Amino acid sequence: MKTRPTTDKVKEAMFNIIGPYFAGGVALDLFAGSGGLSIEGVSRGMTAAYQVDRQYQAIKVIKDNNAVTKNPDKFKVLKMDAWRALEYFVKKGITFDYVFLDPPYKKQQIIAMLDEMVTKKLLNPGAVIVCETGLEADLPQDLPQFAGLRQAKYGITLVTVYQYKGAE
Q1: Could you say which of 40, 108, 137, 147 has the lowest number of CB atoms within 10 Å?
Q2: pLDDT tens-digit map of 97-109
Q3: 142 — phi, psi (to 5°)?
Q4: What share of the chain is helix, strand, coil (3-state, %, to 5)?
Q5: Could you report the per-residue pLDDT of 31-77, keeping only the tens digit for each?
């Protein structure tokens, strides 16, 4: 009950904006829930995905969903808080080409997370960040070091896509 899976309509719209197919790249699904966004990304050509969630039940669902994909070895599942996960990636020297941010609607800290990813050098130049929020999140079109690619409403969901400009 604590997971709010992305609807198929919203997921399809997201991938129409950023894809629809990819020639590699590493993805971070930071509030993975069911793992659906990163699973879709890998099925469309992303090289690998790191799926992070702090809920035990969500981790179980993610692992079950990964197991039925054609390439379960392309996923690394981490049970931890999102902020701790960012520290983990710094220590491991892992950087990302795609980031899916779909935090619980009541606990959105997307701008702070993006700032932290930039500070910790976790984003490759040109990285694409897909944010799924409630309408009340009111994310800006452009952010320092990010270009706003697109923003679209789907019912109570707002999808905002940014591209990292790289270190300035």
Answers
A1: 147
A2: 999 998 876 556 8
A3: -125, 150
A4: 35, 30, 35
A5: 999 999 999 999 999 999 999 999 999 999 999 999 999 999 999 99
Assigned token pair, 23: 């020639």
What is d(CA 5, CA 109) in angstroms, rounded to the nearest whole number? 19
Does the 8-17+30-158 domain belong in CATH 3.40.50.150? yes
Q: Which of 92, 90, 96, 120 is nearest to 46 (CA)?
A: 96
What are the tokens at 163? 């591209």
Say how far apart CA 8 and CA 150 lie, in whole Å: 19
Cα Dmax for the chain: 42
Domain ranges of the chain: 8-17+30-158
Which is nearest to 82 in space by CA: 102, 97, 66? 102
